[in-house]
Amino acid sequence: MRAGTYERLEIDERLEFGYFLTDGETRVLLHDSEITEPIEDKEFVDVFLYLDYESRLAATMKMPTLREGEYGWVEAMDAVDHMGVFVNIGLSKDALIANDILPEDRLIWPEKGDQLYCTMRITENGRFFARLASEDIISEKFVPATREVFNKSVSGHVYRHIEAGCFFISVEGYKGFIHSSQMTREPRLGELVEGRVIDVKEDGSINVSLLPRKQDAMSADAEKILDYMGLRNGAMPYWDKSDPEDIKERFGMSKAAFKRALGHLMKERRAYQENGWTYFTKEQ
C-alpha cells in the first residue's frame, strides 16, 4: 500500500480513537476524525491513503476533490515563503503549489479564498502537489463568447500572468485577457475579478477592462472631492476654473474628470461654487 491510492481494506481492530485497517499484510490507522459514515457493522471500508503530519501512512474516508490526471477548481489556503501556496483538496492535509511554478512577484501569489484550476500530482514518497492547468488544458475548458457579450460585465478567476497582462476564465467559461493598461493594479493568481468586455475575438475569446465605466469613475471622483471637502469643513479652494496641475496634484485626476465630477455634484445640488471656492450645500 502507498499514499495516494484508493483501497478497500478490512477492519482489523477497534481502538479508542479509530480503527486499524488491513490488506492482509499491512495495517493502517483510520482515525475517528477521518470517518464520514458509520462503519461498526462493516467488514470492509473504502478509503484513500495519505501520509499524516508525522509521515506515517494513514487512511481516510474523505475523498480528495482532485485526482491525478483530472482538473478542478481548488481554494488557496495559505502561502509560505520559499515553499509556495497550499490548496484545499478536500482532505485534512492540503496539497502544495510549489513556488517555482508561481509568479516571481510575491505580491500576486494567491491569497486565502482565491480559486485555482489544477490537477493533483502524487510523488513516489506520497507527497501531494497541485499543478496549475496549462494553456492547452484551459483551451479544452474554453467556451467561445458571442458578440452579444460585448460591453457586458463578466467575472472570473485569473489563471496566468504574462508581462503584458493576465488571462482569466469567466464563470461562463469564456477565456479572457486583461491588458496591463486596462487595470489599476495587477490581480493575484486565482483572484476573482470583475470587468467589462471591450472586444470579442474571432476565436470567441474576449478582452476585458477592469477600469471603471465612465459613470462609475465619475462617481468615484465625486466621492474623492466630497471626502476632501469634508476634511476642510465643507469648503475647498478649487473650482472648475482651477489650474489643471493643481487639480492633478491634489486629487490625482485630470481637469476634465474633475469638472465632470464637480458638475455632477452641483447638478445634484450637493455643492456650489463661489469666488473660486467650492462649498457644500446647506443640506450637506
TrEMBL record:
Pfam family of the protein (one): S1_2
Signal peptide extent: none
Domain of life where this protein originates: Bacteria
Gene3D superfamilies (alphabetical): Nucleic acid-binding proteins (2.40.50.140), Winged helix-like DNA-binding domain superfamily/Winged helix DNA-binding domain (1.10.10.10)
InterPro entries documented for this protein: CvfB_fam (IPR014464), CvfB_S1_2nd (IPR048588), CvfB_S1_3rd (IPR048587), CvfB_S1_st (IPR039566), CvfB_WH (IPR040764), NA-bd_OB-fold (IPR012340), S1_domain (IPR003029), WH-like_DNA-bd_sf (IPR036388)
Domain S1 motif: 151-211
PANTHER family reported for this sequence: CONSERVED VIRULENCE FACTOR B
Entry similarity comment: Belongs to the CvfB family.
Protein known as: S1 motif domain-containing protein
Organism the protein comes from: Metabacillus flavus
